Amino acid sequence: MELLIATHEGLASGLVSAHDMLVGKNDQIMTIELNDSGIRDFRRRFAELMDRHQSGQVLILTDLRNGTPHLVAKEYEEAHPDSVRVVSGANLPMVLELGHNLISANLDDVARRAIQVGRGDIEVDKMQLA
């Protein structure tokens, strides 16, 4: 299984950079970012990247639900329902957790774990609730 982090410019590469610094490089993690070259170019690069990984399963983390990277990824998931899952709200705890569980994991289990970890690590210290 592969992990693809698809985000707006700077976020995916930043998440992977932090992952690599904390736990080491993982060749199963790929990135693609929407930049100022536009949506058409992003779609082309996304298709090229996914074509290289047709034989395996891919979990795609996106930054913003219904943003361009997410919508492009969802189109690919709809075309490949047996091998692709998309989870929005990418964050560093997700990437760190998933980086350890990609080798022989079940695609749906990994997607569920991403959601669990992403939600579970959101907290406010010393917040006063009204």
UniProtKB/TrEMBL annotation:
Stored SUPFAM superfamilies: PTS system fructose IIA component-like (SSF53062)
GO biological process entries: phosphoenolpyruvate-dependent sugar phosphotransferase system
A GO CC term attached to the entry: membrane
Residue ranges constituting the PTS EIIA type-4 domain according to the UniProt record: 1-122
Record InterPro entries: Bacterial_PTS_sugar_comp, PTS_EIIA_man-typ, PTS_EIIA_man-typ_sf
Keywords: Transferase
PROSITE patterns found in the cross-reference section: PTS_EIIA_TYPE_4
Domain of life (superkingdom): Bacteria
Membrane recorded as keyword: no
Xref: Gene3D superfamilies: Phosphotransferase system, mannose-type IIA component
GO function terms (MF aspect): transferase activity
Protein name: PTS system, IIA component
Lineage per the UniProt record: Bacteria, Bacillati, Bacillota, Bacilli, Lactobacillales
